[in-house]
Predict the 3D structure of the following.
Amino acid sequence: MKNKKYIILFLIFICCSNNDGYINTICRDIDFSLYVVVPMKNEEGEKIYGYTTNTILYYGIYNEKYGEKYSFKEFLIKLLNGKIILYTKNLKHYWVCHQTNINEEYNQKGFRFIKNNYLFENKKNTFQTKSTLDENQMSSLIKIMFDHEYYIIFNDKEGKFSFRDKNFQDKK
């Protein structure tokens, strides 16, 4: 029994330490509008996933309600782990992540299949959709890419989402 506790603690440590850089970037670049997928509850009290930007989370929720209690990073980690609950009725700017055929394909065929069939690499380690997806399909793709720690950016000029690998390094 004691060994199980150590294994669980080790796994929690590995999970948390692996995405630390990803979370740090989301917290640091608050004016860059990176999309974040967060658990929330709808008007019926059901748990759903929605996406919004780190900018909206920072200025619209964190600053108003949690700024004196937590750092933005602590707030975001608690939010992503379900320790802070957002309610859709209190949010102005969010989009719901829907279950679509893309989720089914992801569950059956995996992440590589999704990347190969729905995305193309338009710049090194940056991907865009190959074809036009409806809003629900895009929300599925956004959740999958966020779960795989891709930075999600909306390009206003092109009117498209871009997905950048978290391991991407700009050469300066």
In short: The helical segments are 2-18, 20-28, 54-66, 72-80, 101-109, 111-118, 135-147. The first helix runs from residue 2 to 18. The chain is about 45% helix and 25% strand.
